[in-house]
Amino acid sequence: MTISSLTLSEQGSGAPPDILEEDMYPFINIGSLHIGTFGLLLWLAAVCATVVLHKNFIRNGVDADALTIVAVVTLSGVFGAKAWHELQNPRELVLAWHQIMLPGWHHPLGIVFGFLRWFQAGFAWFGGLLAGVAMLIYQGHLARPNGLRGLRAGLRLMDFAAPAAAIGYGVGRIGCLTSGDGDYGINTTLPWGVHMAWNALVPPNPPDALVQPTPIYELLFSLAIGWWLWKQASTPRPLGFLTGEYLVLSGIGRFLVEFVRINPKIYFGHTMSNAQVAALGTIVVGALVMFAARNNEAIVSTPLPKKEQDSPATA
Q1: What angle in degrees, to the nearest 10, is found between the helix axes of 150-179 and 125-143?
Q2: Under a CB-based contact definition with an 8 Å cutoff, are residues 278 and 127 in contact?
Q3: Structural domain count of the chain
Q4: Which position among 24, 135, 147, 154 has the lowest Cβ density within 10 Å, counted as fewest Cβ atoms?
């Protein structure tokens, strides 16, 4: 089995990495089986989020299916992130679809494989966030946690999902790093800099440059946010308050990491990236949600009985 991805630098020496000689990146190759590392890490992120959400349901007395909720929210987030990224440049989207359709309808497998190659990279965090929030609100309406209905039910579910979302996002970010899709950082001489493979989806410049592993920064920050929100949720909080707190903290993390990422700075005199502007909007929205929620009632929950705590799918 071989894994083609990235290598840590040797004390920032800048020596050409052995990984540049391989051409199997960004997949784990087991014989003729090629497993995409982005998809694998996305699956692991969903598993982690499911476990955290299930535990939160247990301690809050919610009899709902954490596995189903995470699955549909993850899929919504992936499609939302892809749509947001592609719609930022409609011309490139048209060209990409023209390339996908080149084999013609009499070669359907060629079209399918072309689509999968196109779909494996290019996702925008903000689009995933919007789609995920919308689906969570809908799932809250269906689950009716603690007997709530409508928007209140959606807010309640979003509060439960806040720690899970933070941890799942951080784990999923590592998939972005291993797939080499351009989420890494600027060139660096730091001892923890990494080498990207020469055939990464977005190669570094120059190919043997050390770059900052920004997804790892996001993982660490996300784990800290997840821990903080989990502790905050251990006592009753105003309805919607944790949702606002998650939006503020995740927005701050994304805003800061963009300073050392390779995303082009296109706003405010080429000082801020598209993601930074979106992150500022997330922070503002989160602060408004916290302000509006401060006087909401704090719902006291009763943990589920022991016999209902055995599986992530409790419904």
Answers
A1: 140
A2: no
A3: 1
A4: 147
